[in-house]
Amino acid sequence: MKLCILFFFLFSNILFAQLSEKKLDNYKNQADRIIRSALVEQKAYGWLKEVCEIGPRLSGSEKSLKAIRYAEDKMKQLDFDKVWLQPVMVPHWERGEVEEAFVVDGIDKGKQLHIASLGSSVATNEESVTAGVIEVKDFDELKLRSSEVKGKIVLFNRPIDAGLVNTFSGYGGAVNQRGFGAIQAARFGAVAVLIRSVTTKMDDNVPHVGSMYYADSIPKIPSAAIGSLDADFLSDAIRNDISLKVSIKFNCRTLPDIQSYNVIGEITGSEYPKEVIVVGGHYDSWDKGDGAHDDASGCLQSMEVLDLLKRLDIKPRRTIRCVFFINEENGVRGGRAYGTYADTIKEKHIAAIESDRGAFTPRGFYVGADSLKILKIQSWLPVLKKSLIDWVEKGGGGVDISFIKNAEAQIGYVPDCQRYMDVHHSANDTFESVHPREMELGSAAITILAYLLSEEGF
Question: pTM here?
Fold first, then answer.
């Protein structure tokens, strides 16, 4: 009997959460206005061009600080109710001017290889590192061949699984060699590591960079990404020529931590100003491209959420706050700093929405929340579908918003993923690689969801 009563109340709550026909029609009309304004005016896309013209925004760099000043000024120009900078101390790693690799012995002597040092790597110092190469696919093979590793450059050559539809799953299955390859290889005496670029694009030689890690108890050895075609070349070459040696040289360096900032702006809720919906992305980027998809687009979509509501004179019941998180790529200091702020401020975070999967066509939202909250958001699909959102499923929200522990829902915006890993962390990630309509549809989708959360709450 008690279970029956419990199910009755749960089912009643779900039914009660359904929108009335009149309210649903009103929300659909507002969604139409939001979508039209985003697609016609293309504000976020225009801002993206301006941010990309500043250049890549590696944490601690002068260009990142210039971009922060741009964002603060833009939010003030857009007349948000509040705009402020949240101080964050961030790591300061610089790539340096020298990055070179070539074959020094064997039948392919003199062939240049396309490499880029990985974030936080140590340099090869003034001298290059020259050694033979051993290829492995994973850490298990490295351990089995540990007796062959000492004094060698280890090539980790496991590509993304091209058979997976979800390219993020493929990325997750290959990225550990980039993050921890230097630690594992150094255990057995390797002098450097080359990591096959973690990308779905197999037919070019553009290195895809990213973070890597060291352990204090293990020697720190230089670590670099190598282009897909050159990884394939080395794989064939070392099987056919046992005398082959490679020389690598780069002069990256780690400097003391430096002051940076999260950029924050908000529209204050008309009825519940202490109840907050966060929308955001990470503002830092790697330094090989413009960081357009990863993740200037997510930040600027989030800024456009507030601007769309203002220019359409839609007054949200709850506060909607835009956060440009700094330092997601190599430290997540911005996300941690905002999470600490959220824990101490006397506010209720209804939800946090993160856009950090590129500016491609909208597909869905992952929601980290209990089943009843997910069901409530799913009941809004008739409105969300207008912006091409097809589904709402249980899943992770995003790296930066994961630190907002008191958020009732952590939500990740999910665009189509098929081309994202082609550009991710590379020189391919440029303003020109972003299509304005895809980006603006993403802005509209996030705006519609933020607006519904503001009006309906949980």
Answer: 0.94
